[in-house]
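To assess whether the prediction recovers the assembly geometry, we first specified each molecular entity separately, as shown.
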Amino acid sequence: MFPVKEAAGLAHAEKKGIGFELRRLGMSFDGRPVLSELNLSVRSGEFVAVVGRSGCGKSTLLRLVAGLQQPSQGEIAWEEAHASGTPEYTRVLFQEARLLPWKSVLDNVRLAAGTDRDTAADALRQVGLASRENDWPSVLSGGQRQRVALARALASRPRLLLLDEPLGALDALTRIEMQSLIESLWAESGFTTILVTHDVSEAVALADRVLLIEEGRIALDISIELARPRERDSGFAYYENLILNKVLGRKEEPLPPAAQRKLSYSI
Amino acid sequence: MNRTASPRRRDVILPWTLPVLILALWQVSTSAGWIAERTLPQPLRVAETLADTIRSGVLLHNLGISAMRAMLGFLIGGGIGFALGLMNGLSKTAEKATDSSIQMIRNIPLFALLPLFIIWFGIGEEIKLALVSLGVFFPVYLNTFHGIRSVDPGLIEMGKVYRMSRRSLYAHIVLPGALPSILVGVRYALGITWLVLIVAETVAADAGIGYMAMNAREFFQLDVIVLSIVIYALLGKLSDSLAKRLEKRFLKWNPTYVPR
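The predicted structure of the complete assembly is given in tokenized form:
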């Protein structure tokens, strides 16, 4: 995979994640409700995945948290009292990399205010692209562009990283590489992460907690109690089926895996 | 077939093959008498005239005046076009206030204004500057406006996520994003500059290349007329190359503009 080196810059960031709470959050477009009465509390440093069918409002939720849109009802309360509005150290990774084609890879990473050359170069090293510093984005592959976008987000030491299906357009192998990269960077830096995805197995692989949104409401909220890094074993399949059954409206409950049952006996 | 010429050299030679061929044909047909001297002078005769006019300083004097007019007119018209394009591109209010007026003026044929301009400005420098500026204004304005409006909104949103100030948003995202379109306008405007200037100088001038040609007509100096035409062709080519260089310089990030 990628050489994930310890970055001096990120390791000693004092404040790591940031927590927040959604209070009766609602959003409607032209009178049509997209999200309604959403209550949710996210701990600092937590990795939350939001899954759902297209058009369920999951991306809207992310845009509200990012401050790119204002909610129609309710509010978002940030952990720190002084933080009104979306805290400054929030970064978003979109489905497209959104790199500036007229800036070199390094200059793209330096876009966030106050990012010096060394911090940017460090961030590029973290995503395994140190040798591409002086290239134009147009010569990179889709996966590489997305890694540059990730480096750009990391360079400013985010406390909240919002991922809006950032791996949706990548091929299967690149996806798996990117997933483990994101997981290790998150483990290392401790920022709060919200990942919006339509890929249930991606959500189970990465998140502490998976939310299923259906018709603008939270239909399922489960913690994934699996050790990291996660193998695609029976425990993994259990969570995957649990969520998929709910999404697809299947009635049967998946059998808890053997390991899981043993665990519950021992308690 | 001998293939010693490298592709690079071929690239340099190929564009000039056709002009040289035409020149040769011209020389042959005039010196053989197929075309009368009174219809079209021999290329060699034109070359002699070129040497003569350079020696006497007439050519450089007129060329300098024309070039100055072209440059000033381009700067004034292009500058105003760029500024207005920028303003209307960035502000919907400004667009509403001015765009429809600009579109109305744009649809007046430029040379329909000539009689009015001659009465207003006489045949001095102002009329040439006014005509060139007006001709250059529209392509620069339209392309600047369009360029700014077509900047990827996703990039602007990204800039907002990164808390870029309004100023650096313009400097790093909006302007560079609009630049390819602006440069298309500049290239187009450079062509228009010479076109308008030729007409303006033949109709109302007392110096310049166009004047040189018109003056030569009075004395039936075909060689001077043809020389003027050739010089215009070269000037046009020169400004087009300049525009291409600008594109290469400023758009080197864009694979469309940098042929491998």
